[in-house]
Amino acid sequence: xxxxxxxxxxxxxxxxxxxxxxxxxxxxxxxxxxxxxxxxxxxxxxxxxxxxxxxxxxxxxxxxxxxxxxxxxxxxxxxxxxxxxxxxxxxxxxxxxxxxxxxxxxxxxxxxxxxxxxxxxxxxxxxxxxxxxxxxxxxxxxxxxxxxxxxxxxxxxxxxxxxxxxxxxxxxxxxxxxxxxxxxxxxxxxxxxxxxxxxxxxxxxxxxxxxxxxxxxxxxxxxxxxxxxxxxxxxxxxxxxxxxxxxxxxxxxxxxxxxxxxxxxxxxxxxxxxxxxxxxxxxxxxxxxxxxxxxxxxx
Length: 299
Ligand SMILES: Cc1ncc(COP(=O)(O)O)c(C=O)c1O
Prior knowledge:
By secondary structure, the protein is of the alpha+beta class. It has two domains: 4-118, 2-Layer Sandwich (D-amino Acid Aminotransferase, Chain A, domain 1), CATH 3.30.470; 125-289, D-amino Acid Aminotransferase, subunit A, domain 2 (D-amino Acid Aminotransferase, Chain A, domain 2). The chain is 26% helix and 28% strand. Strands 7, 8, 9, 10, 11, 12, 13, 14 and 15 form a nine-stranded mixed β-sheet that branches. A seven-stranded antiparallel β-sheet has the order 2-1-6-5-3-4-16. A hairpin with a 2-residue loop joins strand 3 (31-39) and strand 4 (42-44). The longest helix has 15 residues, at 68-82. It starts with a strand and ends with a strand. 42% of the residues are buried. The model has no long low-confidence stretch (mean pLDDT 97). The chain binds pyridoxal-5'-phosphate. Pyridoxal-5'-phosphate (PLP) is lined by residues 35, 185, 188-190, 211, 213-216, 249-251.
Protein backbone atom coordinates (compact mmCIF):
# COMPACT_ATOMS: atom_id res chain seq x y z
CA UNK A 1 0.00 0.00 0.00
CA UNK A 2 1.24 3.48 -0.82
CA UNK A 3 1.55 5.50 2.35
CA UNK A 4 3.60 6.30 5.41
CA UNK A 5 2.97 5.71 9.11
CA UNK A 6 4.39 7.11 12.32
CA UNK A 7 4.66 4.83 15.32
CA UNK A 8 6.96 4.68 18.35
CA UNK A 9 8.62 7.89 17.23
CA UNK A 10 9.61 6.66 13.77
CA UNK A 11 8.28 6.99 10.23
CA UNK A 12 7.76 3.54 8.70
CA UNK A 13 6.16 1.86 5.70
CA UNK A 14 2.45 1.02 6.24
CA UNK A 15 3.18 -2.73 6.42
CA UNK A 16 5.59 -2.12 9.31
CA UNK A 17 3.11 -0.10 11.40
CA UNK A 18 2.07 -2.68 13.98
CA UNK A 19 0.78 -2.61 17.54
CA UNK A 20 0.79 -5.27 20.25
CA UNK A 21 -2.36 -7.35 20.66
CA UNK A 22 -2.10 -6.44 24.35
CA UNK A 23 -2.68 -2.74 23.62
CA UNK A 24 -6.12 -1.80 24.99
CA UNK A 25 -6.71 0.13 21.80
CA UNK A 26 -7.01 -3.30 20.19
CA UNK A 27 -8.46 -5.29 23.10
CA UNK A 28 -11.09 -2.77 24.26
CA UNK A 29 -11.41 -0.20 21.44
CA UNK A 30 -9.85 2.09 24.04
CA UNK A 31 -8.56 4.77 21.72
CA UNK A 32 -9.49 7.89 19.87
CA UNK A 33 -8.56 9.18 16.46
CA UNK A 34 -9.21 11.83 13.87
CA UNK A 35 -9.06 11.87 10.10
CA UNK A 36 -8.17 14.91 8.04
CA UNK A 37 -7.74 15.01 4.30
CA UNK A 38 -5.35 16.54 1.85
CA UNK A 39 -6.78 17.60 -1.47
CA UNK A 40 -4.57 18.77 -4.34
CA UNK A 41 -1.65 19.34 -2.02
CA UNK A 42 -3.48 21.15 0.79
CA UNK A 43 -4.78 20.01 4.16
CA UNK A 44 -8.44 20.98 4.58
CA UNK A 45 -9.43 22.55 7.94
CA UNK A 46 -6.52 20.90 9.74
CA UNK A 47 -6.97 23.04 12.85
CA UNK A 48 -10.58 21.95 13.20
CA UNK A 49 -9.46 18.31 13.12
CA UNK A 50 -6.69 18.93 15.65
CA UNK A 51 -9.12 20.82 17.93
CA UNK A 52 -11.48 17.85 17.86
CA UNK A 53 -8.66 15.34 18.38
CA UNK A 54 -7.33 17.25 21.38
CA UNK A 55 -10.85 17.48 22.86
CA UNK A 56 -11.31 13.71 22.40
CA UNK A 57 -7.93 12.98 24.02
CA UNK A 58 -8.78 15.15 27.02
CA UNK A 59 -12.25 13.60 27.40
CA UNK A 60 -10.76 10.10 27.43
CA UNK A 61 -7.82 11.09 29.69
CA UNK A 62 -5.37 10.06 27.02
CA UNK A 63 -1.95 11.69 26.98
CA UNK A 64 -0.34 11.31 23.56
CA UNK A 65 3.14 12.48 24.58
CA UNK A 66 3.35 14.89 21.64
CA UNK A 67 2.12 18.46 21.48
CA UNK A 68 -0.08 19.95 18.79
CA UNK A 69 2.84 21.38 16.83
CA UNK A 70 4.45 17.94 16.67
CA UNK A 71 1.18 16.27 15.64
CA UNK A 72 0.86 18.73 12.78
CA UNK A 73 4.48 18.17 11.78
CA UNK A 74 4.02 14.37 11.85
CA UNK A 75 0.89 14.60 9.68
CA UNK A 76 2.69 16.77 7.12
CA UNK A 77 5.70 14.50 7.14
CA UNK A 78 3.61 11.33 6.65
CA UNK A 79 2.02 12.87 3.55
CA UNK A 80 5.36 14.15 2.26
CA UNK A 81 7.05 10.78 2.67
CA UNK A 82 4.10 8.99 1.09
CA UNK A 83 4.37 11.33 -1.91
CA UNK A 84 0.63 12.01 -1.96
CA UNK A 85 -1.30 15.04 -3.21
CA UNK A 86 -4.73 13.65 -2.22
CA UNK A 87 -4.58 11.82 1.09
CA UNK A 88 -6.44 10.39 4.06
CA UNK A 89 -4.46 11.33 7.12
CA UNK A 90 -5.25 9.77 10.46
CA UNK A 91 -3.89 10.52 13.93
CA UNK A 92 -4.69 8.14 16.75
CA UNK A 93 -3.90 7.49 20.36
CA UNK A 94 -4.43 4.18 22.11
CA UNK A 95 -4.54 3.50 25.85
CA UNK A 96 -1.52 1.23 25.48
CA UNK A 97 -0.66 -1.74 27.65
CA UNK A 98 -1.15 -1.89 31.44
CA UNK A 99 1.69 -2.85 33.76
CA UNK A 100 2.16 -6.67 33.92
CA UNK A 101 -0.67 -8.24 35.93
CA UNK A 102 -2.54 -4.91 36.25
CA UNK A 103 -5.94 -3.94 34.89
CA UNK A 104 -5.61 -0.34 35.98
CA UNK A 105 -5.79 2.03 32.99
CA UNK A 106 -3.66 4.52 34.89
CA UNK A 107 -0.72 2.13 34.53
CA UNK A 108 -0.91 2.27 30.73
CA UNK A 109 1.49 4.30 28.64
CA UNK A 110 -0.66 5.88 25.92
CA UNK A 111 0.61 5.66 22.36
CA UNK A 112 0.36 8.24 19.59
CA UNK A 113 0.40 7.11 15.97
CA UNK A 114 -0.39 8.58 12.57
CA UNK A 115 -0.56 7.55 8.97
CA UNK A 116 -1.20 8.95 5.51
CA UNK A 117 -2.62 6.80 2.71
CA UNK A 118 -4.27 7.64 -0.62
CA UNK A 119 -7.60 9.50 -0.25
CA UNK A 120 -10.37 7.13 0.91
CA UNK A 121 -13.89 7.70 -0.41
CA UNK A 122 -17.04 6.68 1.49
CA UNK A 123 -18.31 6.17 -2.05
CA UNK A 124 -16.17 6.52 -5.15
CA UNK A 125 -16.87 9.49 -7.45
CA UNK A 126 -18.39 7.02 -9.98
CA UNK A 127 -20.76 5.69 -7.32
CA UNK A 128 -21.53 9.20 -6.16
CA UNK A 129 -22.73 10.12 -9.64
CA UNK A 130 -25.50 7.52 -9.24
CA UNK A 131 -26.23 8.45 -5.64
CA UNK A 132 -26.03 6.22 -2.62
CA UNK A 133 -28.57 3.60 -1.59
CA UNK A 134 -29.07 4.13 2.15
CA UNK A 135 -31.07 2.02 4.57
CA UNK A 136 -32.17 2.67 8.11
CA UNK A 137 -30.54 -0.18 10.03
CA UNK A 138 -32.13 -2.13 12.87
CA UNK A 139 -29.33 -1.67 15.45
CA UNK A 140 -29.86 1.45 17.53
CA UNK A 141 -26.89 3.78 17.86
CA UNK A 142 -24.97 3.27 21.13
CA UNK A 143 -26.56 5.75 23.56
CA UNK A 144 -24.65 9.01 23.79
CA UNK A 145 -24.83 8.73 27.58
CA UNK A 146 -22.76 5.52 27.34
CA UNK A 147 -20.25 6.37 24.60
CA UNK A 148 -20.20 10.07 23.72
CA UNK A 149 -20.25 10.17 19.91
CA UNK A 150 -18.60 13.61 19.95
CA UNK A 151 -15.45 11.75 20.96
CA UNK A 152 -14.32 10.11 17.75
CA UNK A 153 -14.22 6.41 18.59
CA UNK A 154 -13.97 2.89 17.24
CA UNK A 155 -17.12 1.53 18.92
CA UNK A 156 -18.50 0.52 15.55
CA UNK A 157 -20.29 -2.80 16.14
CA UNK A 158 -23.68 -1.12 15.69
CA UNK A 159 -22.50 0.36 12.37
CA UNK A 160 -20.80 -2.82 11.16
CA UNK A 161 -23.89 -4.96 11.85
CA UNK A 162 -25.93 -2.27 10.13
CA UNK A 163 -23.61 -2.42 7.11
CA UNK A 164 -24.19 -6.17 6.74
CA UNK A 165 -27.90 -5.49 6.82
CA UNK A 166 -27.48 -2.84 4.11
CA UNK A 167 -25.56 -5.25 1.86
CA UNK A 168 -28.19 -7.98 2.38
CA UNK A 169 -30.85 -5.51 1.31
CA UNK A 170 -28.92 -4.46 -1.81
CA UNK A 171 -27.94 -1.08 -0.38
CA UNK A 172 -24.53 0.48 0.18
CA UNK A 173 -24.62 1.99 3.60
CA UNK A 174 -26.65 2.46 6.72
CA UNK A 175 -27.92 5.21 8.97
CA UNK A 176 -28.92 4.44 12.55
CA UNK A 177 -31.64 5.79 14.81
CA UNK A 178 -31.26 6.61 18.48
CA UNK A 179 -33.43 5.00 21.18
CA UNK A 180 -36.16 7.62 20.57
CA UNK A 181 -36.28 6.89 16.83
CA UNK A 182 -34.40 9.99 15.64
CA UNK A 183 -31.92 9.83 12.76
CA UNK A 184 -28.34 9.98 14.01
CA UNK A 185 -25.41 9.11 11.71
CA UNK A 186 -23.73 6.27 9.87
CA UNK A 187 -20.32 4.62 9.50
CA UNK A 188 -18.17 7.64 8.73
CA UNK A 189 -20.79 10.29 8.01
CA UNK A 190 -23.40 12.73 9.29
CA UNK A 191 -26.85 12.90 7.71
CA UNK A 192 -28.82 15.90 6.37
CA UNK A 193 -32.40 16.07 5.08
CA UNK A 194 -33.66 18.89 2.85
CA UNK A 195 -37.28 20.03 2.78
CA UNK A 196 -38.77 22.70 0.60
CA UNK A 197 -41.82 24.15 2.30
CA UNK A 198 -43.04 26.97 0.08
CA UNK A 199 -39.85 26.99 -2.00
CA UNK A 200 -37.14 28.06 0.48
CA UNK A 201 -34.88 25.10 1.30
CA UNK A 202 -34.79 23.99 4.91
CA UNK A 203 -31.96 21.72 6.05
CA UNK A 204 -32.40 19.51 9.09
CA UNK A 205 -29.69 17.53 10.86
CA UNK A 206 -29.24 16.08 14.34
CA UNK A 207 -28.12 18.54 16.98
CA UNK A 208 -26.94 15.87 19.45
CA UNK A 209 -26.01 12.20 19.62
CA UNK A 210 -23.61 12.45 16.67
CA UNK A 211 -20.00 13.26 15.93
CA UNK A 212 -19.64 16.96 15.22
CA UNK A 213 -18.22 16.32 11.77
CA UNK A 214 -15.86 18.84 10.21
CA UNK A 215 -17.69 18.36 6.90
CA UNK A 216 -20.99 18.84 8.76
CA UNK A 217 -19.61 22.14 10.09
CA UNK A 218 -18.57 23.14 6.57
CA UNK A 219 -22.07 22.41 5.25
CA UNK A 220 -23.64 24.36 8.12
CA UNK A 221 -21.50 27.37 7.20
CA UNK A 222 -22.19 26.98 3.47
CA UNK A 223 -25.93 26.58 4.04
CA UNK A 224 -26.02 29.76 6.12
CA UNK A 225 -24.02 31.64 3.49
CA UNK A 226 -26.43 30.43 0.80
CA UNK A 227 -29.41 31.74 2.80
CA UNK A 228 -30.91 28.28 3.39
CA UNK A 229 -32.86 27.73 6.58
CA UNK A 230 -30.97 25.40 8.92
CA UNK A 231 -32.48 23.45 11.79
CA UNK A 232 -30.21 21.44 14.06
CA UNK A 233 -32.67 19.33 16.04
CA UNK A 234 -33.90 15.76 16.47
CA UNK A 235 -35.11 14.37 13.13
CA UNK A 236 -37.86 11.72 13.47
CA UNK A 237 -37.75 8.87 10.96
CA UNK A 238 -41.25 9.60 9.59
CA UNK A 239 -40.17 13.15 8.74
CA UNK A 240 -36.87 11.91 7.26
CA UNK A 241 -38.83 9.71 4.84
CA UNK A 242 -40.60 12.82 3.51
CA UNK A 243 -37.34 14.61 2.66
CA UNK A 244 -37.01 16.10 -0.78
CA UNK A 245 -33.25 15.56 -0.72
CA UNK A 246 -30.93 13.59 1.57
CA UNK A 247 -27.17 13.84 1.66
CA UNK A 248 -24.31 12.58 3.82
CA UNK A 249 -21.27 14.56 4.90
CA UNK A 250 -17.83 13.10 5.49
CA UNK A 251 -14.16 13.82 5.19
CA UNK A 252 -14.26 10.76 2.91
CA UNK A 253 -16.04 12.52 0.04
CA UNK A 254 -17.61 15.76 1.23
CA UNK A 255 -21.30 16.09 0.37
CA UNK A 256 -22.64 12.75 -0.85
CA UNK A 257 -26.09 12.52 -2.41
CA UNK A 258 -28.46 9.75 -1.31
CA UNK A 259 -30.53 8.38 -4.20
CA UNK A 260 -32.77 6.03 -2.24
CA UNK A 261 -33.85 5.43 1.33
CA UNK A 262 -34.91 1.86 2.12
CA UNK A 263 -35.30 1.29 -1.63
CA UNK A 264 -37.55 4.33 -2.20
CA UNK A 265 -36.15 7.06 -4.50
CA UNK A 266 -35.54 10.25 -2.52
CA UNK A 267 -37.75 13.08 -3.80
CA UNK A 268 -39.08 10.70 -6.45
CA UNK A 269 -35.96 11.31 -8.58
CA UNK A 270 -34.29 8.90 -10.98
CA UNK A 271 -30.80 7.61 -10.03
CA UNK A 272 -28.15 10.18 -10.90
CA UNK A 273 -30.56 13.11 -10.71
CA UNK A 274 -30.03 15.13 -7.57
CA UNK A 275 -31.76 18.02 -5.91
CA UNK A 276 -30.48 21.57 -6.37
CA UNK A 277 -29.49 22.01 -2.72
CA UNK A 278 -27.26 18.93 -2.68
CA UNK A 279 -25.66 19.95 -5.99
CA UNK A 280 -25.04 23.50 -4.81
CA UNK A 281 -23.48 22.35 -1.52
CA UNK A 282 -21.32 19.80 -3.34
CA UNK A 283 -19.96 22.52 -5.63
CA UNK A 284 -19.44 24.96 -2.76
CA UNK A 285 -17.74 22.30 -0.62
CA UNK A 286 -15.10 21.52 -3.23
CA UNK A 287 -14.68 25.19 -4.17
CA UNK A 288 -13.73 25.92 -0.56
CA UNK A 289 -10.69 23.68 -0.99
CA UNK A 290 -9.04 26.45 -3.02
CA UNK A 291 -9.71 29.04 -0.31
CA UNK A 292 -6.50 29.76 1.64
CA UNK A 293 -8.56 30.35 4.82
CA UNK A 294 -9.47 26.65 4.85
CA UNK A 295 -6.41 25.04 3.31
CA UNK A 296 -2.88 24.60 4.54
CA UNK A 297 -0.34 23.80 1.79
CA UNK A 298 1.80 20.71 2.26
CA UNK A 299 5.25 21.49 3.59
C1 LIG B 1 -19.49 8.23 13.20
C2 LIG B 1 -19.07 9.37 12.31
N1 LIG B 1 -19.93 10.39 12.10
C3 LIG B 1 -19.60 11.41 11.29
C4 LIG B 1 -18.38 11.46 10.63
C5 LIG B 1 -18.05 12.61 9.72
O1 LIG B 1 -17.10 13.46 10.31
P1 LIG B 1 -16.12 14.34 9.40
O2 LIG B 1 -16.98 15.21 8.57
O3 LIG B 1 -15.30 15.11 10.38
O4 LIG B 1 -15.34 13.38 8.57
C6 LIG B 1 -17.46 10.43 10.85
C7 LIG B 1 -16.14 10.47 10.20
O5 LIG B 1 -15.38 9.55 10.25
C8 LIG B 1 -17.81 9.35 11.70
O6 LIG B 1 -16.96 8.35 11.93
